[in-house]
Design brief:
Strand order of the largest sheet: 3-2-1-4-5-9-6
CATH topology: Rossmann fold
Order of helices and strands: HHHEHEHEEHHEHEEHHEE
CATH class: Alpha Beta
Strand content: 15-25%
Bound molecules: S-adenosylmethionine
Number of strands: 9
Shape: globular
Structural class: alpha/beta
Number of helices: 10
Length: 234
């Protein structure tokens, strides 16, 4: 039985795209990324691009963005989204976070958004090994003087950060300590058009408990905390 996230990435990429389009409409992530590393003129490699929400942001300012994902269905929607922007400084291709089809020392910024943490649930017996491979790939691809950045959820429905599960708390603690990453968090709240839309978009991804709590609260803004881990590489 596939994980419900995997089922969504494989079969319902358009639904995923509609959900994430509702997140961070204030642009806090874009500002935070620019604080960590000014995006102007950078050559970027992106892991786990999904339907291109980060690709779109990065391409608007960076010199070039080469983005990868393991799921063809996500990349298909990503390509449609990127073509609609009219920008031409991007590429999308199949790639596994553990082994990217990219030469070494080619990027000023290597980034992943909401992709690496899946390994904690999908590979319960070898998640540390896989995370070490992913971080080693980032390190291999980044140029001296470049920056690696990881972006992951620090909780949906809460105003202050807390890892959604003990497993994710363990994962975040592991990569922060083992890979010597700096950390900050920001708010990237969801803003839905109506409660009806919140229900339609949230239930299959976030589950009944959180969706019912949102509906009971009666607010179309759903707080989301996002963690950003990074390292500037010598
Ligand atoms: C929550 S989505 C995030 C997508 C996108 N970064 C975003 O911000 O919306 C997770 C993505 O990671 C991809 N993914 C999961 N495991 C992967 C792997 N080992 N290699 C490459 N992509 C992977 C999935 O296919 C999915 O598109």
């Amino acid at each position: 039985m596939p994980d419900h996230f995997l089922e969504i990435y494989r079969n319902r990429a358009n639904y995923y795209d509609r959900l994430v389009a509702r997140e961070d409409q204030r642009g806090n992530l874009f500002r935070a990324l620019n604080d960590i590393r000014l995006l102007d003129g950078l050559r970027v490699v992106e892991f786990g691009a999904g339907t291109a929400r980060l690709t779109r942001l990065l391409s608007s300012q960076a010199c070039s963005v080469h983005s990868f994902d393991i799921e063809p269905s996500m990349l298909k929607v990503a390509a449609t989204n990127m073509r609609e922007t009219g920008m031409t400084n991007w590429s999308l291709a199949i790639g596994d976070n553990r082994r990217m089809p990219v030469v070494e020392s080619c990027a000023d910024l290597v980034i992943e958004g909401w992709s690496f943490a899946h390994v904690r649930e999908w590979q319960p017996n070898r998640w540390q090994e896989d995370i070490d491979k992913m971080l080693a790939e980032m390190q291999r691809i980044v140029k001296p003087g470049g920056t690696v950045v990881l972006v992951e959820t620090m909780g949906t429905g809460f105003r202050n950060p807390q890892a959604p599960t003990s497993e994710l708390a363990q994962l975040y603690a592991y990569w922060q300590a083992a890979h010597d990453l700096s950390y900050r968090w920001i708010r990237t709240d969801f803003q839905f058009a109506s409660l009806q839309e919140a229900e339609e978009l949230m239930r299959d991804f976030f589950g009944d408990e959180l969706t019912n709590a949102v509906l009971a609260r009666g607010k179309t803004i759903v707080p989301e905390c996002t963690g950003i881990w990074w390292k500037h590489v010598d």
